[in-house]
Amino acid sequence: MSEPINVADFERLAEERCEPGYWGYVVGGAGDEVTLRDNVAAFRRRLLRPRMLVDVSNVSTRTTVLGTEVAMPLMVAPTSLQRVAHAEGEPAVARASAAVGTVYCLSSLASVRPGELAAAVPDSLRWFQLYWSRDRGFTRELVREAAENGFRALVLTVDLPAAGPRERDLRSGFGLPEGLPMPNLPRPLVGAHSFHDTLGEIVDTSLTWRDLEWLRAECAVPLVVKGVLTGEDAALACEHGADGIIVSNHGGRQLDGVPATLDALPEVAEVVAGRAEVYLDGGIRRGTDVAKALALGARAVLVGRPALWGLAAGGETGARRVLELLRDEIRLALVLLGCATPDDVDPGHVRVRE
Ligand SMILES: Cc1cc2nc3c(=O)[nH]c(=O)nc-3n(C[C@H](O)[C@H](O)[C@H](O)COP(=O)(O)O)c2cc1C
Question: Hey, how many other C-beta atoms are within 10 angstroms of the C-beta on 45?
C-alpha cells in the first residue's frame, strides 16, 4: 500500500500486521456490535454548518484540558495490551503523544507501572486510568504512585463492573500472551480465552458514587470519570467531586444497545453546565468528527483504536503519524468551518441530517 494518508489507511495496514485473534480483540465490540457501529454512524447523522468570511488567517488547534495546554482537542484514550500491538508498547504511544503535544492516558491493563512510564517518557503529558480493584490498599498505592510520578489526572473507568460479552474473543479463543506483565492489577489475569472474565472478578463491583469521595480524598490530582452516558450520572459525578467526565461507551465493548456517544453528549453537556470539563470518545476517525463533538459540548475528544492502529502499523512512528494526521484534519476543519480556535466551535456549527 502507498503511504497511509488517513486513519482508515492505518486500519488496513494494522490488520495486515496483527495476528487475527488480537485483531478481533481490538476492533470487536459487545454482543451484536450495534453500539460499536453506531458510534461511527452517529457522526454521519450530523452535518456541519460552516460560516463564511470569518478571519481564519491565524487558526490554532491549541486548547487546554484541566489546565494543561495541549496542541489539539484530541487525546489518546487508555487501551489495554499495547505491547501486543507492537513490542515497543506503551512508551511508544506515550512518546508519540508527547511529540505531538497531547495527553497520553496509560491504562490499568498496561505492561508498565505508572512510575516506569514516567521514567521512560518524562516529558509526556500523562493521565492514568484506574480499574478499582477489591484490594483497596493496592488501589491506594497505585493512585499515589501515579500522582507522585507526574500523572496530571486520574481517570476512573466506571462502565466495567463486569466485562462485556466479546463474542469475537470467545470464537477466536484470544487470550493473554504468555509472560505479558500486568503490574497494575493485584493478581494476574487468567490467560485462557475470555481473560476479561477474570478482570470482572478483580474490579470492586460494590462501588457507588459515594466511594468517589474516598478516591477524591486519596488522589492529589484532578479526577475524571470515564463511561458516563446519562444526564443523571453526569450530575452525580459533579456532585461527588469529578473535575472531568468522559462520555464513553468503552468503544461499544461493554453494554450493547446503549446510545452512540455523540447522541449522549448533548444531555451530559447540558446537565454539567460548566461544572466539570466534558470529553467524548468512541468513533472518532476524522478531524470533522472532532468538530462535531466540540459543537455539541465536548471540550476535547479521545481516540482508542486509531492510536492502536498506528502503533500496530509502525510503532512509535505510526502512532505519531496518526496523531499528526488527525491534528492536521482538525486544523483544516476549523479553517473551513470559519473558527479560529476550538473554543469558537458552537452548537450553530452542526445540525442533524433530516
Ligand atoms: C483494544 C481496546 C482496549 C481498551 N482498553 C481499555 C482499558 O484498559 N481501559 C479503559 O478505560 N478503556 C479501554 N478501552 C476503551 C477506550 O478507552 C475508549 O473508550 C474507546 O476505545 C473509544 O472508542 P474508539 O476506539 O472508537 O476511539 C479499550 C478499547 C479498545 C478498543
Answer: 13
In a domain, 181, yes or no: yes
pLDDT exceeds cutoff 70 at 1: no
**What total number of domains does the chain contain?**
1
The answer to whether the CB of 157 is under 6 A from ligand 1 is yes
Question: Is 108 within the bounds of a domain?
Answer: yes
Is the residue at 159 inside a domain? yes
166 lines ligand 1 (CB under 6 A): no
Strand partners, 244: 224, 277
Which CATH number does the domain housing residue 194 bear? 3.20.20.70
pLDDT, tens digit (0-9, with 9 covering 90-100), for 30-66: 999 999 999 999 999 999 999 999 999 999 999 999 9
pLDDT at 197: 73
Of residues 106 and 192, more confidence is placed in 106
**Atom 4 of ligand 1, residue of closest alpha carbon:** 79
Q: Does a structural domain hold residue 335?
A: yes
What pLDDT was estimated at residue 192? 54
Q: Is 290 in the pocket of ligand 1 (CB under 6 A)?
A: no
Distance of CA 251 from the midpoint of ligand 1 (Å): 6
CB 344 within 8 A of CB 63: no
Q: How many angstroms does the Cα of residue 233 sit away from the middle of ligand 1?
A: 20
Give the distance (Å) from ligand 1 centre to CA of residue 338. 32
pTM value? 0.98
Cβ atoms of 261 and 290 closer than 8 Å:
no
Which residue is closest in CA terms to ligand 1's atom 3?
79
DSSP-derived secondary structure for 62-81: -EEETTEEESSSEEEPP-S-
Ligand 1 pocket check: which of 127, 166, 250, 255 to mutate, most ligand atoms within 8 Å of Cβ? 250
Q: Which of 66-75, 91-100, 139-148, 176-185 has the lowest mean pLDDT?
A: 176-185
- How many CB atoms neighbour CB 346 within 10 A? 12
Phi-psi bin for 250: left (phi > 0), alpha (psi -120 to 50), beta?
A: left
Gap from CA of 27 to ligand 1 centroid (Å): 10
Measured between its terminal Cα atoms, the distance across the chain in Å is 37
Residue 218's domain comprises: 7-341
Residue nearest to atom 7 of ligand 1 (CA): 79
